[in-house]
Design brief:
630 residues; alpha/beta; seven-stranded mixed β-sheet; 15 helices
Length: 630
Amino acid sequence: MLVIVAASSALGGLVAGWVLHAASLRRRPNDTTEGVAPNDVPNGEEVVAQSAGEGTARTDRRQRPRLEVAVMEEPESEAQARWRRTVTGGSPISPLMPMNFGFAKGELSSTGLRTASGGPVSGTRPSARSMSTLGRRGRAKRVYGLGGYSQSSRVMLCMVGLPARGKSYITKMMERYLQWSGFPVRIFNAGNLRRQEGMAGASAGFFSDENKEASAMREKVASACMEEAINWLQMQTNVCVVIFDATNTTKRRRQMVVERCRESRGITPVFIESICDDPGVLEENYRLKMGNQDYQDMDPAQAREDFMKRVKAYESRYETIDDDEQGGDLMYIKLFNVGQKVVMHSCSGYLVSQIGFYLSNIHIQPRSIWLTRHAEFEDETRHSEVTARGRAYCGELANHLLQRRQSMRQAGEGECAELLVLMGTAPVHATTFELIISSAGAAGSCTRGSPQGGPTRTYSGAPGLTGLLSPQGSIAEEGELLRGISISSHDSGISQEFPAMSTSLLNELDRGDYASISYDEIHREHPEVWAERQRDPLHFRYPGVGGESYTDVIGRLRPIIIELERQRRSVLVISHLAVQRCLYAYFTGCTMEEIPNMDMPMHELVELQPGPFGCKVTRTSLDAQSDGTQ
């Protein structure tokens, strides 16, 4: 067990540092360090892990399994303390970013800590070797970000289920979420491998057990796909996930997967079974299947008949997962009708638990998610007025949303035609929302109050419809969704309502000491800070209390992603640029490195429509200075 104590002396401030007491852990035979292969740790290096919910940190000393104490003898200067707070002051760290906790002699410049020799030490993304070591013996302390260390260093998610049960759709959603969260992830699809090997267009007879030659070929393809997945996992040195997308419908096949993973140290198999018996969902899945490579050149009626014979062949040998399989030790997650019900069994560890939580909130119902930046202000860093251009945009946006919702209702799209507004707690967000609802032609009054009994403000709205919009409202922090401003207007005789929720999770990237000045001023007056940001815009963290990086914003937006996945209504998100970029990257599958440079102009509305084959993106410029849809 490892106990970390932050000690500081009140007597003159002569002694400050961290005292680390390390005792070796008794390792189980198959236990591995998350993200570190047995031979990856240099001689004498300690690996320190901090994991959410565990309450303790853990060390695994490969060498010298005895108790040692490492003490920083030199006092920590105010500059060093400030640097430490900037780097580790409560902000999440990417799971792929190992850090060293030790401080070099020197002082904090505007771009970070500089050593006594004048060389820079990054205050935004210190590498594992860029800082001085801690203690007399000079051993580096590797500390992982949240989720970067757990009992399951390499996870193999194995899909289970009959054809047309949404397995491939679910795998794409998981890939998108895990990639956006910073975990390496790859999908290996047995059906795609079969088609690549020249067996595209195989008829239903190929999937019958009566065809022994075809059965042997199917087993060969599935085994080859599994080997490709395991080989990829073995090449990774960090926490990572591979998704083995195959039917895996028999206990014998699943037994083979488990045994093969046991042969490769550090790979944890988790089975995800998709069960679907909803006639409506099945019919839609069958329709989508008719578009894959096996049926592209077939008559639709013949393709449908052939595919149903294939499903019957799989049903004859299908064995669902039960609690007694593998002696009750099999880790599995069952999804019924893609989100209607979720069952988890023997699932433990940060990463697997996060996957289970994510899967319990997804669905495949069509809906739209609109992203928009706040309206243009004369100076958004200070209290100022909305520009005429900004007011015009809010009016155009209100009209556009009303027209889209009316068309969705007329098309019979049901619940997805309802609209929910999510926004940050900054004044520019609330003002933008007020202008949108007032532009919708609302009349009467709508009251906003504070749950803490704060002052009440009156807005233009519909008579008798009141709601609550809390500046402190937070989906994650308060554990509940606040009631929103509910506004009604009348467009072509149809009543329109705009419930809204605000949360600080949607606020702009915190610029720390530079929050009160614009980006242009940072560029002009603090060129060294700007240059540091340009070198690594994804991981650059602004100096000062509360300063954030893009990876920090991604970390705090996870509850928002869950909320957007959970909602069956369409959603409008009003926020700043950094948040818009992160949300857009999640739904479109962009890499993390692309996020800081995404082009999302002011007064442009982005409509996202998630679907089984990706996310449809529609960009509509509602700016008075330009128009058009891309």
